[in-house]
Fold:
Amino acid sequence: MKELDFALIGQQLREIRVSKQLTQEYLANKTDVNVSHISNIETNKVKVSLTLLVGLCNAMDVSVDYVLRNEYPSADSAVEKELLNTIKDWDTSKKEAILRLAKAL
Structure:
């Protein structure tokens, strides 16, 4: 079994946090850890624990398998689930607009 790529996991967490315009302080408060611990995870100075990974994902409203998608032989299903999770509460017109855009790509 290969080792998990904790550097990539930290990078994924940072990218998601930034894309959602969340601060490290926000995540630290939501997960009851220090801001420096969040920073250390994102920069691969420490490995994220499973408990904290779940907490971070919940705080950012993203699935754990989406963050870990590069650890699977096929990441497609994790991306598809996250896409569906993202648009589930959208109104029909927005969903139709995304569908047209996806077909155009």
The mean pLDDT is 92. The chain has one domain: 6-104. The chain has seven helices and no strands.
